[in-house]
Amino acid sequence: MTTSGATAVMFRPRTVGEAVEMLATAHDAGRAVDLLGGGTDLVPALRSGERRPGAVVALRRVLELRVRGAGADSLTVGAGVTYTDLAGWSLSPGLALAARVVGSAQIRNLGTVGGALGSARPTGDLLTFLTAADAEILVASPRGPGRMTLPAFLADGLAPDALVTAVRLPRPAGPQSYLKIGGRQAAYQALVSCAVLVDRMRHRLACAIGGVGRLPIRMTVAERFAHDAVDWSAGAASSSAARRFGELVSEAVSRVGPELAAGPRVSADYRRHAAGVLAARAFTRCLDAAGAPVDPRVERDVRP
């Protein structure tokens, strides 16, 4: 494989075990290694010369990475599962909502869960949802299988001879919503995103905001407010509670640092305002006493 004049060794494993062995071999040989799944990020970077690995491990033939599973209390999604695979998955409606508004149809057909974790973009749709869901990252290495919390994975990364095999998250126990502000179509990258997950069994609500910091952030103060504001016997909350929830999210976002670079379309004040609006809407769609339907569209009418 040639990358901007340099030749990289291409490995094509068929199992996770082979992939780990090939990663270790390349690492021991002193080669920088990139993993190739859907290729939506890596292939353009190779063509432009931005990335020049000494080896590439192509994972498309590893069927183990493309499995989805359900246990009594959890869902497991393989690192090779695409956004298109997730978009119609009834077992996780919130994850399906997030997957439906990722990029274009071509990106959804190619892009994978592992790729979303590897790129760790501040505005990544899947990353925002997984942050709210308290997802756990399953990994494989020469030392055997392991697991990491999502915050630990994002902060510390993986050992160079390890790879992500799957993501594990709790089975839904209530309504879920995912909203984002992009352009006029879902194909646009999110400017600000919000995931809200309700757990009616444990009387909890989780909320994560993406696009306001280097990584999606949990809104812990707003979550504590929701615990007391929701009528858990009815699974509903008032419009005033939704407004206050949005205000608390805006206040939390105003204290986030370091902020992302501001531009003519996306100032820090706009991000703060938009986060609060999205949070209030997602809260309402999950807990509206009138039963407002969950809407996966890209939000447009958000003005300061």
Automatic annotation (TrEMBL):
One of its GO terms (molecular function) is FAD binding. InterPro entries: CO_DH_flav_C, CO_DH_flav_C_dom_sf, Diverse_Substr_Oxidored, FAD-bd_PCMH, FAD-bd_PCMH-like_sf, FAD-bd_PCMH_sub1, FAD-bd_PCMH_sub2, Mopterin_DH_FAD-bd. The keyword Flavoprotein applies. Keywords: FAD, Flavoprotein, Oxidoreductase. Pfam families: FAD_binding_5. It comes from the Bacteria. This is Molybdopterin dehydrogenase, FAD-binding. The keyword Transmembrane helix does not apply. Residues 2-174 form the FAD-binding PCMH-type domain. Transmembrane segments: none annotated.
